């Protein structure tokens, strides 16, 4: 069994190897709203003691703090809700079990959506078409093998989507148009536990292997392209000629074929990926 790792980096790597999440403000839809010239929102885990949510101007690169709420301890994942507010998964908030926060991107007001319960280290976060939140937690449940937890955004109630099984360290997740949940697990599929991608049925929690082992070593971030392909960011995949250690890979969810998009050079410790509507990463 593997407990959740505490990963410390000043800025998780995502868009073109630079930022954690690109979210267009005010369109009211998650993930698919990146085409407009809205700001980029970043969760930075090391600044300010407990971390912050930072707005980056897409044209100028200027930064401004959206929220540095005193309850932040280790914000890991970020996504956008249907109403345009930001949802942040913090692995260490509120006594160390973690929490989901809702942040108003206009005034920075931050409130707790859900905490404690089954959470131990909520990491990846996404929103289903119904508006419900799904969270990957690598240390949830007594066996600490992790799972996927669904959160009712209205009252914070938590229900189990899937637990145990193939999971060992589920970190990132994304929701496909048909509702399937794709999870990046950094430690699944022994021996050697190189990790991989697992598909979860959102209705009954059944898990199926999509892709595993080589070239994966520590897959953490995951997103889906308009083509249906899955894009995975691996923290320590084999690097390129520049000596980098991270990589970005494309996965065919139908047959599990994995192809390299980029690795090495300027990519180091890749932990998240995000896809624009034109399928740029």
Write the layout of secondary structure elements.
Blueprint: E1 40-44, E2 52-56, E3 63-67, E4 75-80, E5 86-90, E6 99-103, E7 110-115, E8 124-127, E9 133-137, E10 147-151, E11 158-163, E12 170-175, E13 181-185, E14 196-200, E15 207-212, E16 219-224, E17 230-234, E18 247-251, E19 258-263
Antiparallel strand pairs: 1-2, 2-3, 4-5, 5-6, 6-7, 8-9, 9-10, 10-11, 12-13, 13-14, 14-15, 16-17, 17-18, 18-19
Description:
The protein has 281 residues and is mainly beta. The chain is built from no helices and 19 strands. Residues 1-36 and 240-244 have low confidence and may be disordered. The protein has strands spanning 40-44, 52-56, 63-67, 75-80, 86-90, 99-103, 110-115, 124-127, 133-137, 147-151, 158-163, 170-175, 181-185, 196-200, 207-212, 219-224, 230-234, 247-251, 258-263. Helices cover 0% and strands 36% of the residues. It has a four-stranded antiparallel sheet with strand order 4-5-6-7, with no helix packed on it. The protein has a four-stranded antiparallel sheet with strand order 8-9-10-11, with no helix packed on it.
């Amino acid at each position: 069994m593997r407990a959740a790792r505490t990963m410390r980096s000043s800025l998780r790597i995502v868009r073109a190897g630079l930022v954690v999440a690109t979210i267009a403000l005010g369109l009211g839809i998650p993930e698919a709203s990146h085409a407009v010239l809205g700001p980029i929102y970043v969760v930075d885990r090391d600044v300010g003691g407990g971390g912050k949510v930072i707005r980056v101007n897409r044209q100028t690169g200027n930064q401004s703090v959206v929220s540095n709420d005193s309850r932040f301890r280790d914000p890991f994942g970020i996504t956008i809700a249907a109403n345009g507010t930001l949802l942040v998964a913090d692995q260490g908030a509120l006594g160390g079990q973690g929490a989901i926060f809702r942040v108003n991107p206009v005034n920075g007001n931050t409130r707790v959506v859900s905490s404690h319960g089954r959470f131990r280290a909520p990491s990846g976060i996404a929103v289903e078409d119904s508006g419900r939140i799904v969270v990957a937690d690598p240390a949830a449940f007594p066996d600490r093998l992790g799972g996927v937890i669904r959160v009712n955004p209205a009252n914070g109630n938590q229900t189990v989507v899937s637990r145990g099984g193939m999971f060992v360290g589920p970190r990132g997740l994304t929701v496909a148009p048909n509702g399937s949940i794709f999870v990046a697990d950094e430690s699944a599929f022994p021996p050697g536990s190189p990790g991989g991608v697992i598909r979860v049925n959102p209705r009954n929690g059944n898990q199926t292997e999509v892709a595993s082992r080589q070239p994966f070593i520590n897959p953490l971030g995951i997103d889906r392209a308009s083509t249906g392909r899955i894009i995975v960011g691996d923290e320590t995949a084999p690097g390129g000629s520049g000596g980098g250690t991270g990589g970005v890979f494309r996965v065919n969810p139908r047959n599990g074929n994995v192809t390299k998009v980029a690795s090495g050079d300027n990519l180091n410790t890749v932990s998240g990926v995000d896809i624009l509507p034109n399928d740029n990463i």
